[in-house]
Amino acid sequence: MNSKKNSISRRGLVKGLGLAGAASLVAACSKQEASDCKESAAVLTGKRTLKLVTTWPKNFPGLGTGPQRFADRVTEMTEGRITIKLYAAGELVGALGAFDAVSQGKADLYHGAEYYWQGKAPAFPFFTAVPMGMTTNELNAWIYYGGGQELWDELSARFNVKALLCGNTGTQMGGWFRNEINSIDDFQGLKIRMPGLGGEVFRRLGATPVTKAGGEIFQALSQGNIDATEWVGPWNDLAFGFHSIVKNYYTSGIHEPGAALAVGFNKEIWDSFSKTDQAMIKAAAAEENSMMYAEYNAQNARALRTLVNEHGVKLLQFPDDIRQRLAEESYKVIEEVSQTDDLSKRIYDSYRSAKSDGMYWGEFAEDYFTQSRRDFPEK
């Protein structure tokens, strides 16, 4: 018997059967056709298992546990019809190979930072973070209500991907430096781990940026292969133990003011979902987007106190003249990205307009309030 033809015919048959027919269908199969029967039953009940590859170390706080929460939430919401099996960086593909694996259909979905894919298209960083760009709240407003998702869909579709917001680490720190940065000259020849457009900004100040996956940073810093690194913020930085190597920790970097993370589906997989399942997956991703941001805000405060009070970390700020140069180069870099092609220009224009709206509202809302809270603290 031609098992392939037989399997196809069963797929056609099960479309017309109810769920109650699954057990009888399997029972009716001979032992020789057991594998075909199981496949047909899976189609009949709509159950499927998807491979999720991430760019993060296994079970790493926030970055690693967030996508697992998302996967578990999808399984719960679909009552087990969709099971997502998570593979951490290096288990199925390397951290930076996640996008290609999903685009080519070797995996079903990824969880990562979109700026890792800027080599594919220069506009991808707008959907993670760009230097002197939007905060988390501003970025969410753009993606959900300012046309950002539609532009993201257009960009990702070129690579057979459908992406959604699925986490945010909030404002990231300026990074860990072996030596203090007191002038522009201190950037000359500085080897710093910094991906995305932030790395290009630092390059223009004289540094040498390198891209390394999270699991590679500690060794590179401890062996002197890099002189500085940004990673995420106090919670994740404490977990990685950077404070055991260097003590100079710079606050709020300009490179990632609100770093979004994404779940990206192979588009053929995404299109195969029913509208109901797509809606549930979107809801699960949106919930994780909110939950991860809240978790980072809670954990970063505790971890920062631990780094300073228990490990002797020096909390520093870049001098004003350096911050000004970083800002000036940032605006140049992102404008240059807008000139690469029509879609990048439309993404840039939309992003810039949304940032302007966010800054305008923020000035009269949270900015004014938080300044009042600092000026008149609780006794």
Q: How much of the residues is beta strand, in percent?
A: 5-15%
**Which structural class fits the helix and strand makeup?**
alpha/beta
CATH C-level label of one domain: Alpha Beta
Helicity range: 40-55%
Largest sheet: 6 strands, mixed
Mean pLDDT: 90
Low-confidence stretches: 1-43
Find the CATH superfamily of one domain.
Answer: Periplasmic binding protein-like II
* Radius of gyration from CA coordinates: 24 Å
Adjacency order of strands in the biggest sheet:
7-6-8-5-9-11
Compile the SSE list and pairings.
Layout: H1 3-14, H2 21-28, H3 34-45, E1 48-54, H4 65-77, E2 82-87, H5 98-103, E3 109-112, H6 136-145, H7 148-157, E4 161-168, E5 175-177, E6 191-193, H8 196-204, E7 208-210, H9 214-222, E8 228-229, H10 234-240, E9 248-250, E10 260-266, H11 267-272, H12 275-311, E11 314-316, H13 320-338, H14 342-364, H15 366-375
Parallel strand pairs: 1-2, 1-3, 6-7, 6-8, 9-11
Antiparallel strand pairs: 3-10, 4-10, 5-8, 5-9
Descriptive notes:
GO terms for molecular function: metal ion binding. Keywords: Metal-binding, Signal. This is TRAP transporter substrate-binding protein. This protein is α/β, with parallel strands linked by helices and about 375 residues long. The chain has a domain at about 175-255 and about 315-355: Periplasmic binding protein-like II (D-Maltodextrin-Binding Protein, domain 2), CATH 3.40.190. Helices cover about 50% and strands about 15% of the residues. The chain has 15 helices and eleven strands. It has a six-stranded mixed β-sheet. Helix 4 links the parallel strand 1 (about 50-55) and strand 2. The chain starts with a helix and ends with a helix. Mean pLDDT is about 90; it is low at about 1-45.
